[in-house]
């Protein structure tokens, strides 16, 4: 019963274009702040002592753009190395990924690069990848230079921002940037996986019968 | 009339009311679609009190109420002139319909199953509406039901007050009784409730025109009809009837008139602005075109058309209607151009045609009914005539400019007053002469023999909010038809969206829904994510329990899911019970992880993925050390082990496993011990291999073998037999290697071929084991009188083991071939085979071959003791050196096959 939409209930078609649903996965070394970024983005919260993720946490969040609405299905994965082999379960079929490192830890940046490589090799070829240098609030302990990461991101066609889950710096922005970069037409949907950027609302298709181009 | 099964419920529901209030009809399980996150079930009851009717919406604690205390009246809606109800089909569903109820500003939608109950209930409600319509009834009796719950008039505000917080029946969701409603429909519903917050009303002028052109071509300009107003209208909706009366138009659906009239329209529309056509539809002679001012074009969307034929056979297009629906900004508009049944007496047919058009028009891809639009403009040649007056009388009234006398006799007005047609549609005052029927090209009413009474056949009515008619007129200058065109000019309020406000409302709603959605994700915790087993031993199951607790607000459905590329959700040495299930909020579930090791593993390790349906995944790591056992070790390793398996140093084991150390025994000691024991104690035992033994005894024998215990073998003869079968079943590789299986099965019909495979293709050590076993089985068969066994039974048992499939019993169809293969070796003399060259080689190289045939042949000495001595003192003299006696017993006779091995045997003897 739940999924049935009685015809009578439909309002008069909003100007809202369409809602696209995308699967987004967070990858990166453990303790770089993946869960904290998600928690900040989704709930606006920050916990100094965020528990280690053993598994893959799942949350959803909607981002409104000018003409479309993007709903992210966010999979926040476990960073520990021993769970590495399970990561493909989550990035396979994902349309977007945020690879996170900790700007105070050079190793995590190296690990981030290998994640990017793995994604480029094995994920959906159209995947939008963002690189997030987290813990910007710990600037004084910085070990990874902004320029270095930015150059790497440019070389590899990644979105790049330094973020802070603690101060909320650039957290919404990086998700928004991804939402903007994601293709919104159906053709981009890869095979398999859930919520492949499918259109959820029939918005303006009807006008085509009259041969016009209404938005 | 009520269904028998509902009689009990009726009694209970009736008890909720006083004795003068009679429950006339009931509907159980009406699922209400509302602003909340969920669908809820209601009971609908139609109650009568002194000829007034009311619809009660009742909440029931149970699906089927058992007592009056289960019921709570949620709403009481009087059935009076403000009450409307109808039903809608649900696209792509044939099992349910939507039952819509509207009362003033309240709109309720119930999804109900199609069936006797629903049709009966709906028709009872409609009937009660029909009796209630006329007079003002007294509904004071409802007051007592509306005290304490929102009063009817307040219901509307009540609803919008609630919506910001999206009230939710958490308990019901939690218990799994209710499911979350579809997010998108909820969003749309919420948005529609908040429409006033992001829209404002803007007046649009809409010109609606209708003309029955009597099949004439457009030889005149339509300007005097379409461009008579000073201001250009924003929207034109222009309908024609009888566009083409030819047979071709009727049968071929094609007419040149279509293009001609469309062009005539384009030539005649208001010259002060530009228009674009948004929709055009024609069914035989009925044509409807909708044009909008260019500047509005981009605000038109979801345009759809439909046609309904009600003519010949009730479906042909000579009569019926064509319709265009569209959305202009945020207001939905529907234009219907109808041509209803002709003939003075055909009032009922016309009413029927009207109903058919209403019922059948659905715009397919935009499945709205006509009535569901915010504004409906109904135009056309509705064909209602003047009755009760003769043509002469009518003309006389008209000559006196006395329209009102004639209008009293207008069938449409009469039928509308009776609610037979165009109920709740409005028509402007008619101030123009009847538009039918004129002699062509004149203003003179029908002078033919029939001399029809003039009539207002051509009409324009409307329905919906914010519509103001500015003009309603006929256009006498257009004379080519027997009808005159009619037009209506409207100022209509169109709801225009303020994009910024809309975005804000939309975003707020989405945020709210995200919050709810995340809040309603299933959440569980597990008491441990690391499960470590104690030392895991071969076929000795061990279990660990973990506890999953539902810490969320909703039912948590969990299951273990397989990882990418895995075939199962866990490794084959592990089992999980239950591996899926449901946990209610606040409740727990115990999972048992059981390890049963049958593989040659040093450690076990697996990461389980516990998935919550619609939610997160959790990883549970399972690990443990394994104790090695002779049962899962390869023949090659065992044959190289100088001491029992568990006495081996890691280095010794590694060397043996890597085949770096020399082969010490032609058959593994463990195998020899088992077979020797069976040979000496079990030859006369009935059903030796078919009787299951105590599991603990088999486990003890396992330890006895692995540790090299000096105690007597700790188990019954059956346990030893079972241990032998297990040994052969679980050796790291099957005795006959996988790659030879197909060859073996193919050769099964020919002993010579079978023999060749064994002698030429098998590794020496495997061959030894094979032949040794076969010799023992032959000994067993020699005693078949006592033990009751037969070669076929043994061949079947051992065929399946010696030629075991990589995945157990994956090829049951091959079992017969395997048995046949083994059978040859059981019934043919194997003695020529048992001194293969390989064996001699060990003898020569190593000098301490043990005679594996020795025990079979029947040495009565205590072989165990000798062997033990040998094991303890590996350097001692070989206790099983071939003795002359042994050879004389004659078991190693050369056969006449003249094969290589017999020659070798002979030569070695010499």
Automatic annotation (TrEMBL), chain A:
Keyword presence, Lipid biosynthesis: no
SUPFAM superfamilies listed in its UniProt record: P-loop containing nucleoside triphosphate hydrolases
Cell compartment(s), UniProt: Early endosome
EC id: 3.6.5.2
Listed Pfam families: Ras
Swiss-Prot/TrEMBL keywords: Endosome, GTP-binding, Hydrolase, Lipoprotein, Nucleotide-binding, Prenylation, Protein transport, Transport
Gene Ontology annotations of biological process type: protein transport
Family membership noted in the UniProt record: Belongs to the small GTPase superfamily. Rab family.
Protein name per the record: small monomeric GTPase
Automatic annotation (TrEMBL), chain B:
Name of this protein: Rho-GAP domain-containing protein
Matches recorded under InterPro entries: Endo/exonu/phosph_ase_sf, Ig-like_fold, INPP5B_PH_dom, IP5, IPPc, OCRL-1_2_ASH, OCRL1/INPP5B_INPP5c, Rho_GTPase_activation_prot
TM helices/strands, residue ranges: none
The entry's keywords: Cytoplasmic vesicle, Endosome, Hydrolase, Lipid metabolism, Membrane
Span of domain Rho-GAP: 643-834
CDD domains found in the cross-reference section: INPP5c_INPP5B (cd09093), RhoGAP_OCRL1 (cd04380)
Gene Ontology terms, MF aspect: inositol phosphate phosphatase activity; phosphatidylinositol-4,5-bisphosphate 5-phosphatase activity
Region (Disordered): 887-910
Gene Ontology, cellular component aspect: early endosome membrane; phagocytic vesicle membrane
